[in-house]
Amino acid sequence: MDKLKVGILGATGLVGQRYIQFLHEHKFFEIASLMASEKSAGKKYKECAKWYLDFDIPEEISDMVVDEISTDNIKKHKLDLVFSALPGEIASWEEKFAREIPLFSKVSKHRMDKDVPLIVPEINQEHFEIIKHQKKNRNFNGFIVTAPNCSTTGMVLPLKVLQDKFGIESLHVTTFQALSGAGYDGVKSMQILDNIIPFIGGEEDKMETEALKILGKYEDESKQIASANFKIYASCNRVNVLDGHLEVLHVKLKNDFDVEKVKEEFAKFNPLKDFSLPSAPENPITVLDEEDRPQPRLDRNRDKGMTISVGRIEKKDEKILRLYSLSHNTIRGAAGESVLEAELAFQKGIFEISER
Ligand code: NAP
After folding, report:
1. Which of 54, 270, 271, 327 stands the most exposed, by the fewest C-beta atoms within 10 Å?
2. What is the predicted pLDDT for the residue at 356?
3. Is the CB of 330 under 6 A from ligand 1?
4. Catalytic: 150?
């Protein structure tokens, strides 16, 4: 099969690097354009990316010349689709690209737009339906598909299981979020060494709204996604960890539950098992029974960084379930998730390879 040619917007940043990790030597996709700011444009990738991953820059990428961001690159490199990891302030580029080709984004700008799907492939693939309205509303040849905020991703997979099996009344969640979640220049070392910062701008609001959209239902008649109907109370903290967001969830369920049954439901949850998607984890949720797990350093890379590790599952009261969840924020919470969305959309025929 001819591979689809992809571009990466924000290719030199922390999420951009993870896109490269997932897209180089990919079965369906081939990286054709790396786009970044004018300070990187014209330089070889290895000369301008502040590479932070613990393996070398893939050989075929390291000498590629970085492009200045422009929709001219669509024609120049015959791009079939783009992935976006741009800073929020310049995310208006996304619409310019989507006017022409499909765009899969990790940026928050369009996540809550009524005609934009906010996808977690194991949870809400029927939300892709809204793309037909988006194309019409916005006169796009392509479309925008978004992936959730990294801290939202860490909790929605277990929440989906709990919602379907027991019903959810409310959720209190407290996060311990890694430094990479703030981008390369995000948190100064003098602020975070020997410290925890009990505030992440905009994060709590994102967790409290995005999860409800993801767990909501697409309604064809109203051409809308009706959000799930329960309340989320989030408290977010930045901690001195490189990668991996740890979260503590207290979920009030609608029905009585048994802890062993919850673990069993988590372990068997695998709605993508009949698709052959290169980035899909073997187990979307991994249940750990040790009393001191999950931990960022020990568990974040499990299953290519694409599984959510859960542990310390306890019944705190008749209807209150407590669990810890851990996700790799730049992989499952960012580029890995976005690539998985594109793989699923491609397999479902939502877009095709363009005629060259
Ligand atoms: P980052 O490390 O700061 O990287 C930013 C990227 O954007 C770099 O490639 C940079 O290129 C490029 N860029 C900056 N200004 C530009 C301009 N004017 N024109 C074109 N390109 C420009 O940030 P990040 O952590 O990768 O985050 C990227 C996006 O993903 C953000 O919207 C963030 O909120 C979101 N996100 C991040 C995470 C995470 O865990 N880090 C998770 C989910 C979502 P230069 O190198 O040339 O400056």
Report:
1. 54
2. 63
3. yes
4. yes
